[in-house]
User: Which sequence fits this backbone?
């Protein structure tokens, strides 16, 4: 069952259109507010997975890239506001700018640290988040530690309420992110990434340009995170460094792919839809602290019990042989010590 | 900004004192990350746990926080040994420590932090002890006892750790496990057992570091996050697993942070250690006293 990329894109767009139409039919704007967050995490988790899942490099700095996108928007907003121009900048343009900024920072960051072992890269991404937060806190132009207000237009021409427009844009970005991830997975690039994940030294020795591939991965991943962040100020209305750089983004964008499964584009999607929806429900019905606890427990539980996530579980389930049921104990191919 | 010698010398001294405390915070990470290669990103969360244990005992029985920390150290050791056992069985044995092991500790960080939030709330907690309050004056230099005492005890802790690592059998085995596990196994020593002991020791230091933290400043559950980057910065700068290097790096970062917050304002201080970390990683990944 091989679906070509254009066909895949069409299928995704059809699904997106159906989801959007269904949300419109519900008519309650809360659906859009909650849905936006879930879609935003679809993008973040997919972007994280391009570096984390495909290459095996754990990025703790999702919040930093996300915030870069968001703060690019704030900077542009202030710039235009200062020049007495109308406040309406098309969001897609903001996303491109935010994506470009995050992509460049991702590239620079990767260049500095990717020559080191995996764990150092992870710690450096954590450091990057704090350095950027400190810069933003001390940069009064974008609001500093006080935060910045962004006035969201009430309505937009054909769609109506502005939140619906944001929802639609984020949905399209999610489709784009998933298509890019799928495209990478099936290309030479994806195979290159997989060699890095499995054995970087062996890949290097076989002539895989590992540093270049890793830089491509960080740049794409960072750019997508920045694009996801760009419309955020319009969604939230009041942007503040503390929450924008919060570790919540980091833990969510790690937990979602790991719970879903990291080796393909389906994993982050499943993980996000599951965890994202669960979180929205938990936030409304219990409290937002409990929802982080939930994420933490699920993350730890899944990495211990089901290292390949939900996709891995389904995969093992589908690949059982009939004689597994005839009283013989199954031999797990992944078990330590077994020779493949 | 008026430059005065007084201010400078005070900033340097308080930097050294705070650096002593940072050394205690980092010693656990130096053991786990530097020697055992276990990226325990949740270490600061265990430090906060230590702070809360000190707080509870102090609030109910009025016991001295440092004394409390030393008494509960064995409990932390057991906790650490238990966590290592889970980590070993789930990740190290399967060869998955890089991606999933990191995620595991990241998850632990959140579980610990949010559990503390749910149980104690986000109010700042503090402890009472005789040395919190008075300040030692040496000429123009002020040394608040609430920072001086943790600094001195911290140096004692690190000296003790260094002695254990270099003089005892277990300590030498820990150093050996970092170099060659197979050779250790040939000497009929179980590397897993040695690593479990070392990781237990690493978490045990968190109990004391937590007590220092709550003596120095009021603590709420998410305070630990500031320390994640700082401890790894110090550990890498000091040269992965070298305790003397850790002390030097901790004091260096303490001084630079203190100078920054004195002369440029405290809002810039967090970027210092991280800037240092990025710089170290880019220029000299082996650190100051790297092995």
Assistant:
């Amino acid at each position: 069952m091989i679906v070509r990329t254009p066909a895949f894109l069409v299928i995704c767009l059809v699904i997106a259109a159906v989801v959007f139409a269904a949300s419109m039919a519900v008519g309650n704007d809360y659906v859009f507010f909650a849905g936006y967050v879930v879609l935003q995490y679809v993008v973040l988790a997919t972007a994280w997975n391009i570096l984390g899942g495909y290459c095996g490099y754990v990025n703790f700095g999702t919040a930093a890239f996300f915030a870069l996108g968001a703060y690019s928007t704030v900077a542009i907003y202030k710039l235009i506001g200062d020049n007495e121009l109308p406040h309406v900048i098309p969001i897609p343009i903001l996303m491109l700018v935010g994506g470009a900024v995050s992509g460049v920072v991702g590239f620079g960051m990767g260049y500095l640290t990717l020559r080191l072992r995996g764990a150092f890269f992870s710690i450096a991404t954590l450091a990057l988040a704090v350095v950027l937060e400190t810069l933003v806190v001390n940069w009064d132009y974008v609001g500093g530690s006080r935060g910045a207000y962004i006035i969201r237009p009430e309505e937009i021409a054909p769609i109506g309420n502005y939140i619906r427009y944001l929802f639609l844009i984020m949905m399209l970005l999610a489709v784009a992110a998933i298509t890019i991830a799928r495209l990478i997975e099936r290309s030479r690039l994806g195979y290159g990434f997989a060699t890095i994940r499995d054995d970087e030294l062996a890949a290097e020795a076989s002539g895989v340009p590992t540093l270049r591939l890793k830089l491509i991965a960080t740049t794409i991943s960072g750019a997508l995170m920045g694009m996801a962040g760009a419309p955020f100020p319009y969604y939230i209305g009041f942007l503040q460094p503390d929450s924008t750089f919060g570790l919540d983004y980091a833990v969510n964008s790690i937990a979602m792919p790991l719970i879903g499964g990291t080796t393909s584009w389906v994993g982050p999607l499943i993980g996000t839809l599951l965890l994202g929806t669960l979180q929205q429900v938990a936030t409304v019905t219990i409290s937002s602290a409990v929802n982080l606890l939930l994420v933490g427990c699920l993350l730890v539980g899944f990495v211990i019990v089901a290292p390949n996530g939900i996709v891995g579980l389904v995969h093992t389930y589908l690949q059982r042989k009939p004689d597994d049921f005839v009283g013989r104990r199954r031999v797990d191919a992944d078990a330590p010590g077994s020779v493949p | 900004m008026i430059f005065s010698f007084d201010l400078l010398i005070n900033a340097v001294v308080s930097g050294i004192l705070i650096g002593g405390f940072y050394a205690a915070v980092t010693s656990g990470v130096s053991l786990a990350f530097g020697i055992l290669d276990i990226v325990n990103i949740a270490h600061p969360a265990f430090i906060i746990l230590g702070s809360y244990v000190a707080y509870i005992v102090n609030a109910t029985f009025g016991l001295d926080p440092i004394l409390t920390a030393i008494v509960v150290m064995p409990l932390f050791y057991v906790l650490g040994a238990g966590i290592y056992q889970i980590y070993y069985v789930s990740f190290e044995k399967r060869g998955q420590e890089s991606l999933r092991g990191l995620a595991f500790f990241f998850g632990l960080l959140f579980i610990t932090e949010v559990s503390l939030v749910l149980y104690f709330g986000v109010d700042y907690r503090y402890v009472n002890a005789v040395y919190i309050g008075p300040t030692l004056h040496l000429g123009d230099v002020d040394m608040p006892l609430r920072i001086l005492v943790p600094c001195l005890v911290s140096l004692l802790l690190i000296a003790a750790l260094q002695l254990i690592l270099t003089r005892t059998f277990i300590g030498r085995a820990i150093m050996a496990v970092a170099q060659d596990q197979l050779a250790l196994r040939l000497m009929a020593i179980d590397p897993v057992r040695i690593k479990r002991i070392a990781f237990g020791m690493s978490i045990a230091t968190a109990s004391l570091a937590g007590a220092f933290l709550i003596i120095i400043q009021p603590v709420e559950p998410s305070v630990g996050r500031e320390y994640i980057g700082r401890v790894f910065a110090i550990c890498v700068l000091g040269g992965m697993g070298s305790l003397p290097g850790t002390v030097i790096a901790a004091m260096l970062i303490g001084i630079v942070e203190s100078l920054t917050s004195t002369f440029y304002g405290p809002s810039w201080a967090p970027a210092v250690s991280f800037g240092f970390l990025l710089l170290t990683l880019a220029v000299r990944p082996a650190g100051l006293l790297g092995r």
Remarks:
- The first strand of chain A starts at residue 148 and ends at 149.
- The two ends of chain A are 27 Å apart (CA to CA).
- The interface with chain B takes residues 52, 56, 58, 60, 112-113, 116, 118-120, 122-124, 126-128, 130-131, 133-135, 137-138, 145, 247, 250-251, 254-255, 258, 262, 289-290, 292-293, 295-297, 299-300, 303-304, 307, 334, 336 of chain A (CB under 8 Å).
- DSSP finds 15 helices and four strands in chain A.
